[in-house]
Amino acid sequence: MNNKTIKEPIRKKWIWIAVIILFAGNVPWYLPVGRIKPIIFGFPFWAFVSLLFSLAFCGLVSWVCLKEWNVVEDQEEEGVEQ
């Protein structure tokens, strides 16, 4: 019998804080208006910043889904009653 505890990331405040920070950083509203230079790998600076925050956000969400989310459906699919 698998005795994994049920974990739901919605109850963890640090996950919400990280999501809000990464989501707010994804839109570079904090940069000066018209900021194009420097050009990094052929993209404007704001696009590079947005890409980095998007990758970090996707990584966090993937990690949370794989490691921090353990729900009852797994046990129900195996036919194990609680």
TrEMBL record:
Keywords: Membrane, Transmembrane, Transmembrane helix. It comes from Cytobacillus oceanisediminis. The chain crosses the membrane at residues 14-31, 43-66. The keyword Membrane applies. The keyword Membrane applies. This is DUF3311 domain-containing protein. It comes from the Bacteria.
